[in-house]
């Protein structure tokens, strides 16, 4: 598991190859502008961030597909940690398009070619 200020697509590609083959699991903290990558489960990344001062409401699980960098398919909104009835998010996806856009903007700031 790794908290990154920035990361290259090449690094993500290596992470993907060593874990799932084509994707890297990640969790973002929208309030603290944090990105944690490279863990087997989103819940492990979530726990790390909670223990470091993040609030649950700000954390969202995503998958990054390095080979799709630069396309709309680079970020996938799919994680069990996203199921939050209290925040009106009833699925594993991120249903609020404004939150999706915030996540994409954060990822764009952190991931480079």
Largest sheet: 5 strands, antiparallel
Give the radius of gyration: 13 Å
Spans with pLDDT under 50 lasting ≥5 residues? none
Total of DSSP H or I helical runs spanning 4+ residues: 3
Helix content: 25-40%
Distance between the termini: 21 Å
Coarse shape: globular
The ordered string of helix (H) and strand (E) elements is: EEHEEHEEHE
Average of per-residue pLDDT values: 97
Report on the architecture of this protein.
- The protein has helices at 9-19, 42-51, 97-110; strands spanning 2-4, 7-8, 24-29, 34-37, 59-64, 75-76, 111-112.
- By secondary structure, the chain is of the alpha+beta class.
- The protein has one domain (2-112).
- The chain has a 5-stranded antiparallel β-sheet with strand order 1-4-3-5-6, sandwiched between helices. The protein has a two-stranded parallel ribbon with strand order 2-7.
- The two termini are 21 Å apart.
How is this fold's topology laid out?
Layout lengths: L1 E3 L2 E2 H11 L4 E6 L4 E4 L4 H10 L7 E6 L10 E2 L20 H14 E2 L1
Parallel strand pairs: 2-7
Antiparallel strand pairs: 1-4, 3-4, 3-5, 5-6
What features would you highlight for this structure?
113 residues; alpha+beta; five-stranded antiparallel beta sheet; two-stranded parallel ribbon; 3 helices; 31% helix
Give a short overview.
The chain has 113 residues and is α+β, with helices and mostly antiparallel strands. It is 31% helix and 22% strand.
């Amino acid at each position: 598991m790794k908290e990154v200020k920035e990361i290259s697509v090449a690094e993500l590609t290596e992470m993907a190859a060593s874990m799932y083959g084509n994707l890297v699991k990640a969790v973002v903290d929208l309030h603290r502008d944090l990105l944690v990558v490279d863990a087997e489960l989103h819940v492990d990344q979530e726990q790390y961030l909670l223990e470091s001062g993040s609030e649950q409401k700000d954390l969202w699980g995503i998958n990054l597909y390095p080979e799709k960098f630069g396309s709309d398919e680079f970020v996938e909104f799919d994680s069990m940690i996203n199921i939050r009835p209290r925040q009106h998010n009833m699925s594993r996806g991120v249903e609020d398009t404004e939150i999706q856009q915030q996540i994409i903007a954060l990822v764009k700031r952190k991931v480079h070619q």
